[in-house]
UniProtKB/TrEMBL annotation, chains A, B, C, D:
Keywords: Transferase. InterPro entries: Aldolase_TIM, Class-I_DAHP_synthase, DAHP1/KDSA, DAHP_snth_FXD, DAHP_syn_2. Residues 336-355 are annotated as: Disordered. The lineage of its organism: Bacteria, Bacillati, Actinomycetota, Actinomycetes, Streptosporangiales. NCBIfam families: DAHP_synth_Bsub, PRK08673.1, PRK12595.1. It comes from Planomonospora sphaerica. This is 3-deoxy-7-phosphoheptulonate synthase.
């Protein structure tokens, strides 16, 4: 069962629900996001039905859930959530671009990439300071030095920062610098890490495991939510299949599938899905057209010299095309682009639609 | 090697090339489509280089191909092909909707479905008379009686007909009724069938095998082309992966990947990919936004009573949304919709973009 | 529902059951194998229950089946079937080796390969005259000339012949030469072909589709059985996955899974699974240890010169190791090796077990 | 490049090699296992070739490696490694059974399961105190209390303990109780955790990621080895595919593939591969016949009451069959069974081979 709290419910209201549920022998988990609070219940359904939860102060709805996840599920008839990252919204009314380098290499490279990101209409800057690499001999990221670079570039450009955290031990440090914590595909079922970011007080970007079903992905989100944090954005980044023409297979259907099952926003990563620069623009457009709430793309001032995933990074010359593709597709979907994407509806670019 | 013939080349020109190549100990395969003729060569590259092919009458270009397929490959710098089906174009300038019932059941059901298809803006009618079913106890299609129904409905509605052929023995019969022959996913590597439709004098719709790589799919097209027929449209219809939320996983990336490798048009089947009615519209929009040259969708007047694949069929009430989605997405891509899709650019439906 | 006929039931007995079922508004399909006859029923279960099938002459058992296949299912408490190919058994008491070249190339190569097969303990000779090739430019097999070579080599060596048929049009021709008809992985759901071999009067070797679930594979067998032929041997030959270290992924678990669901024998093809010569012996041993009723392996006198799949073929020098591996593993399982495998229990090779 | 040290080489010898490599501008990583020490080099191959490494004291061999991993690679012509866990060997001469409950639930259940394990011939006891569960509401293991139970049961039964560690924060605690640390499938690319167990001074059991290629799996082992620990045992536990008849698809071919590429022992987990009790015995036999160095199986005194993965656990009544299957298959392969498997070669059970 799931209790959706009303907009004006207080923390005390939620605590009273927890107390009532516990008195009936159940357990209750309060999860808060920027625009809603829900309480998930575990226990005997009949007993919990009988305690009059819908009469409690601050309760908007009490819903049964048939799915194994509950805090992150979508209660039929309710809107999907908006997650705000340092004021930048990700949710049903917008298409938010997150862009930046795969890895933070130098202050200059990061700043240049951030400027490209802003030119592309990005609302948020991505960039990795801790890099999960298949080989222990590959560049592993700059660590905390990279985080400081990201913070400086945020200062300079105004773009809030999304960056990956790999280890429970680093969560506090990364949360000290970043505006949003990213959980990578290889850590989607690193449960202690999910629990730690659930308690870190920052919105979380949860990438889908390359091997994970949609249900497992939502269960991973539930791990985060169960620790109190409902500000979670899901990111489809391709699954592993037999096809080798692309690095992974973008599961575009997962976008509408997830939106029917979960209240959480879902964005798409065309760069890691395809592993090929030439597919990033068409896949970004397809993602928005499928209903994605945003796109996250690799940008690098000099992809050929990138220390990580150069072949998939867009460069400066690709920026106008990316901006136009996302802007036009957002307009097709009747959505705003919070980062100020270049393609949006000024009279002059009316014709872009038909080009 | 591949010889692209000029628009005014004659059949005699092509025959002379074949003769020249054979005199040099090679083999040459002439493949003709509505808008181009190519000749594929097999033999020692150095010897073939030396015989002066580019000086022969009617030769536009002589190109080396590094891929294992050649007739269906895309020669850099040349346009992609347009395949015309009874006057309806499928190719780079258009978004063509093919719609209709999964299976032909009765004259009434087929006619009703065809009218829905036309209302949705379809340029072509799909419908199966020979159905490949997992179970021998399931409805296997009406056979030739189904073909006659399709022909009658074409008469009534003006929509040219696309229908599947399952067996070499039936190719001639099906080609006698249909405007376009469909090869289904389970027959993508049924090589004798590919060769037979390559000689049948009708455009071919070649669905991707659910297990096939892009390269294998293009090799299957090459089998058809090698028998002389270059009027082939590729159809991405989902591949088999571990994910069970959808029936198959739509490989949306295959659209731009194929367009870089092959001159052939490529369309998307959102119905068989997803196996779920509620995903057909978002996936159709995504397909067009990714660059697909068309969409093929299941429509049924009463999906709940369908003898085949009812859960994925759209019904009459879904038609306006499908028409609008494809029309708007086509306009986003600057393409025409040959079937006259409802959503296209009249001032009145400007607002549809933002709904 | 499924009716298992007793060993002494006559064709007239089966016909009477069909008549009785039809009189009750149902359908009945009689399927005969060398060691049993079954009748599969389609219709309303309650009505069929009421007509007293178990009292009919020649009826051993009447069983309900929950699976979608019925003729090929395993009735709990009954033995699995033995399929005899020109007197060579494949079934639960034996481990039968089928070996030979991937493709018939010349009389000499085929005869040499057959002698190697016999030396390896093979009970049957494999060899392709019609070859399904990914590329239309690759060697497509010798056709009927290849069949004649196989027949000559059978004469010379005494080994019955298993060979693939690709097209409905060739079934009669191939059945005129071969002792067993093979359906390849790409044709597992070529339903007209399945129906044709179901009527051809020869045992059938049905390879699993590289994309097929176990259930789909058994449904394909049901297509053959429904046309009257229950002499079907299933062959696991690897499925398609993301792993590229092997050509396909041998699904060894399918062996015991199928044996619980179906009465049909199941063998393993380690050559096409792995696509690597060095894995054939360990995978053959594993297959037998998992309970496989046989192994089918590629053998070629000169793999480096093979026109098809040379990298996976064993050569003469590998024969003793293959023979010993299969012979020893068969003994571990308490099974006979009908082809007379070299490794079997003479005192002298006792030590081979521990090498 | 890779330097294999001789058996009598000292730590000082290895340090001198590191110093020499560093003086040439390279990096060197010393990795030690119970039966060998290797030094992996990173740097310019030509420069490293020129410094005379083969003349250094304690050097047995200097080998070039073409693979991306080096410390865990197999130098052609050298034996595969033996990893000893509290005196119990896992390696090429033995078949070691590891058995026990999926999760430690109570002292009694764990002790009973350990006695079953010993009866089955196990050399090591498995049991999870920290459980990675798809759902945050599922039983998460007893934590350190579970570790104490395992230690008590080891005391009682003499079986060394293998147990999973989920988080960098727990490595020291778990290493304080366990004889071998297990890295689960979901953590195969949790790089900080791999590095931490690489420094923990205990042998490691590295399960293959359900989505991982063989190469990625060996790269994960390289992460552990690079931190100094070469006592790593690989465990194939099934990969994720489209087939749903089993929980995962056991990639039996990975056993011989890995043994050609890596010096590390490799064992098989039939319980998690199949997720079905009835497949554990045939898959165990197949694993040993394919060359596996051991088997790890779930055993539970009352599977129907298990808190985790009951459907795949063997119970007491399955123990004799498991013991016999592994014992007989080990004898087929000419290997010892260190735990004293019941089936082993006493004259009296000669007949077991043929049962």
């Amino acid at each position: 069962m799931l209790v959706v709290m009303s907009g004006d419910a207080t923390q005390a209201d939620a605590r009273e629900i927890v107390a009532l549920v516990e008195s009936a022998g159940g357990e209750a988990f309060v999860s808060r996001g920027g625009n809603r609070t829900v309480v998930g219940l575990v226990g005997e359904a009949e007993r919990l039905d009988a305690i009059g939860l819908h009469r409690m102060r601050g309760v908007e709805r009490v819903a049964r859930t048939s799915e194994r996840y509950r805090l992150v599920s979508r209660v039929p008839g309710t809107d999907r959530s908006v997650v705000e990252v340092a004021g930048v919204p990700i949710g049903p009314g917008t298409v938010t671009l997150i862009a930046g380098p795969c890895a933070v290499e130098t202050p200059e490279q990061t700043l240049e990439a951030a400027r490209l990101a802003r030119a592309a209409g990005a609302g948020l800057l991505r960039g990795g300071a801790y890099k999960p690499r298949t080989s222990p001999y590959a560049f592993q990221g700059l660590g905390e030095r990279g985080l400081r670079i990201l913070a400086d570039v945020r200062e300079e450009t105004g773009l809030p920062v999304v960056t990956e955290v790999l280890s429970v031990c680093d969560v506090e440090t990364v949360a000290g610098y970043a505006d949003m914590l990213q959980i990578g595909t290889r850590n989607m079922q690193n449960f202690p890490l999910l629990q730690a970011v659930g308690e870190a007080g920052r919105p979380v970007l949860l990438k889908r495991g390359m091997h994970a079903t949609v249900e497992e992905w939502l269960m991973a989100a539930e791990y985060i939510a169960q620790r109190g944090n409902l500000d979670i954005v899901l990111c489809e980044r391709g699954i592993r299949t037999f096809e080798t023409a692309t690095r992974n297979t973008l599961d575009i259907s997962a976008v509408p599938v997830v939106q029917r099952l979960s209240q959480l926003p879902v964005i798409v990563d065309p760069s890691h899905s395809a592993g090929r620069r030439d597919l990033v623009v068409p896949l970004s457009r397809a993602a928005v057209a499928a209903g994605a709430d945003g796109v996250i793309a690799d940008l690098h001032p000099r992809p050929e010299a990138a220390l990580c995933d150069g072949p998939q990074a867009l460069s400066g010359e690709d920026v106008p095309e990316l901006a136009r593709a996302i802007g036009d597709a957002a307009r097709l979907m009747g959505r705003r682009t919070p980062g100020g994407l270049a393609g949006r509806g000024t009279p002059g670019d009316r014709r872009l639609v038909a080009v």
